[in-house]
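Hi U.,

Before I forget, here's the chain from the pilot set. I'm dumping it here mostly so it's searchable later in email.
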Amino acid sequence: MLFKKQDKTQSESSEGAEVKKSAHKGNSHYLSAKESREIAKSNARAMREYEKKKRVKHVDESVYTCKMQDENNIVEFDDLHTYFFTDAGVAKAVDGVTFSIPKGATVGVVGESGCGKSVTSLSLMQLVQAPQGQIVGGSIRFNMGDKAYDIAKMPINEMRKIRGKQIAMIFQEPMTSLNPVFRIGYQLDEMVLLHTGCTKEEAKAHSIEMLKLVGIAAPERVYSCYPHELSGGMRQRVMIAIALSCDPRLIIADEPTTALDVTIQAQILDLLREIKQKIDGSIMLITHDLGVIAEMADYVVVMYAGRVIETGTTEEIFHNPLHPYTIGLQKSKPVVKRKVDRLYNIPGQVPNPIDMPNFCYFKDRCDKCIDKCNGEYPHFVQVSPTHRVSCYLYEEKGAEGGSNE
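Structure:
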């Protein structure tokens, strides 16, 4: 895939905020007072500009209407850049992410904590914490059926019309996602009333029906409960009911089994599978648990330091992992009946997102480096029709499929 050149605003904000750090008494991470002021000023300028674009009213639909590259996809991330403007500089949380979610499929996104999985999903929902967090470049094409929208260009007031209705999200921790001062019924009804325009009685009946759908035994009682009166598994089921209340085309499940015991995890995963078949929708499953991915996903996207480093079907990623990072992730997972003295861990640390190197981000942690790894960031190599990897080790085994720059 050919990538678009970054627009002027993105380049200016990155260059202006990434003030080079001067060495001071041998400390390369030292920032002088002058440099801190320059960073603060450039950040404030960039954030004002991006917020102004998002809050424009009465925008013609043609501004954010686009065309899908493949009509069989529900979402297409194309060279997405989401940055956080901090006092120390610009943190590139998502730095050129490209992958697609096909219709009716489950796509698992895996990687270490801090690799950009959740920020990618929040960018799709336009829920990145503003004004520090901003989508500064790239496209997020969402297939509405009869037309497609570029979510990266949509104003906030237009995004509210499809958030929750067309795209729903199951957040990582239900105890913090549910409002503790409102009853479950109120929070369920709110979503239905906002997007469907039905009466309160109809909304209540629909909410109770959704609670039944997610396997809650006494929906009328749970409807009147507060979140703290429910167990973790019940709260997660309520979150799934809220996400499904408007029949979305895409469900984003961000660590849906975190902090749940093994039995409840299995129930939640079975529930997601059943619901996906009933609504004939797609799921973007974000997790660091490879076991969940193996059980749930049709396709896998492996992320590292804000970039996609390998994509493929579940069988390809698990039976033929190519990138040294993907191999390291699989070796880090304990295996039943395999005795080891020490669990494997990938050596080294993730590079600083504020000062990323020009070469492969995994180079300093990789034990398979070759001379080419000292050059520019590796392009994607297409190993099979569905399998591609960003690594110089496989340039001779496949044809280049595009650039990750």
